Amino acid sequence: MTAFLAKRIGIGLLTLMVASAVVFGVLEILPGDPAQLMLGMNATPEALANLREQMGLNQPVLLRYFTWVGGMLVGDFGRSFTYSSPVIDLIAERVVVSLPLAIISLILSTAIAIPVGIFSAARRGKAADTVSMGAAQIGVAIPNFWFALLLIYVFAVWLRLVPSGGFPGWSAGIWPGIKALLLPAVALALPQAAILARVTRSAMLEVLGEDYIRTARAKGMPRRTVLWRHALRNAMIPVLTILGLQFAFLLAGTIIIENVFYLPGLGRLVFQAITQRDLIVVEGVVMLLVASVVVVNIVVDILYAVVDPRLRIAA
Same domain, yes or no, for 200 and 258? Predict the structure, then answer.
């Protein structure tokens, strides 16, 4: 197991190295002068030269790359010229919104999808299966930003149960903060739950056709026990894979939802930094999100071994 973990961590570090080179290279080849875009077309040559020097744009590309990577290794992500603040402080302010939003969304998605997937698999070919999978197909097809606008109209404008946008901060209390994240979490969770429910159903159907499931039923074991204790555990490998991918998406792919609900999260920070051409912020946030994806993948690999003893023995 130790060798397995060491191998996965090594692959993760290699992924981070390649990702850092790709992120830095892509932002370098973008057209336009960042200093010119930040100061405007009427900026004087002296002001442009001064800002380029502050941003390090007058240094060789390789020197800037290794300086950036070396700074990240010690927790220094650079300083934003738009916000006049260290990038790590900006990330710390925004991650307390994006991370709880991703966690709440994942909990909602899992709580909905797995029971629906099991229910549908247990009633394969019946009306309940057709209805639940039809609803899941609709959930997959609906864009989450359109669904978010619908939720705002119904629950914020019409019923006035929750705020339509903004975030009061955790200093205002736990419940006001969670209340502000409920609609965004639902808007993110339901499309993901539709995908996860279909994967759960497919995995369960494959397992329910195995001989040991038929043997358990022949011995008179209760149907609920067969489904939840035996079938679900052996169907969890593809489900865990999708869960890991979804958490990474919910943490990194919330730009549209955070802008719809005007949430001060990482997605909105990246969007603002791109429009203002604040490259050091974009680089720092993207690398943080890449690192989160790598960590989630390692955790999922560990859960594989926990769920399936055969993988643990092989590792």
Answer: yes
User: Which domain covers residue 123, as residue numbers?
Assistant: 94-314
Q: Is the pLDDT of residue 314 over 70?
A: no
Separation CA 165–CA 172 (nearest Å): 15
Report the relative pairing of strands 79-80 and 85-86 from DSSP bridges.
Answer: antiparallel
- Whether 267 and 259 have beta carbons less than 8 Å apart is answered as yes
Q: Which residues contact 238 (CB under 8 A, 6 or more apart)?
A: 199, 202, 203
Indicate the residue among 56, 71, 87 that finishes a domain. Answer: 87
Does one domain contain both 285 and 147? yes
Check pLDDT > 80 for residue 30: no
| Model pLDDT, residue 42 | 73
Whether 32 has a pLDDT exceeding 80, the answer reads no
Rounded distance between C-alpha atoms, residue 51 and residue 167, angstroms:
34
pLDDT in tens, 61-71: 888 888 888 88
Q: Crossing angle, helix 87-122 and helix 236-252, to 10 degrees?
A: 150
The reply to whether 123 falls in a domain is yes
86 forms bridges with which residues in the sheet? 79
Rounded CA-CA distance 302/244 in Å is: 12
**Residue matched to tokens 């969890």:** 236
CB 183 within 8 A of CB 261: yes
The angle formed by the CA atoms of residues 286, 41 and 89, to the nearest 5 degrees, is: 30
Residues in the chain: 315
3-state secondary structure of 307: helix
CA distance from start to end of the chain = 5
Spatial contact of 253 and 290, defined as CB atoms under 8 Å apart: no
**Residue 249: which of 203, 196, 210 has the closest Cα?**
196
- CB neighbours of 8 closer than 8 A, spacing ≥ 6? 297, 298, 301, 302
Token code pair at residue 209:
């056709």
Calculate the CA 248 to chain-centre distance. 3
Could you give the CA distance from residue 271 to residue 112 in angstroms, rounded to a whole number?
Answer: 30
